[in-house]
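--- STAGE predict ---
source: upstream dedup step, 1 unique chain passed
mode: sequence only
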Amino acid sequence: VQLVQSGAELRNPGTSVRVSCKASGYAFTAYFIDWVRQAPGQGLEWMGRIDPENGGTKSAQKFQGRVSFTADTSTSTVYAELSSLRSEDTAVYFCARRERGEFDYWGQGTQVTVSS
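--- STAGE serialize ---
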């Protein structure tokens, strides 16, 4: 099983960023994919998740209206897009596969830096 994320991003405040997570080695639609971030000096923060089978999503209240999750079953890739970026969104963003309520595989992380 592998989750491979896209590379580091640098964005200006107010813009958007999309991070990808390509899955391999398992049945893509059989597991939810969650997104978690870690800001400098902070703990992990859950952002939300997507069910690749039907595209259903759930997001943390903090991010509602700013985050969207999509899945492309043709490429076994999920995407997280965060809009209206601010400096506090600077963090490492991770995708993780959810198995029975726990995360069993993680992507390598994507650094997103928001700075003018």
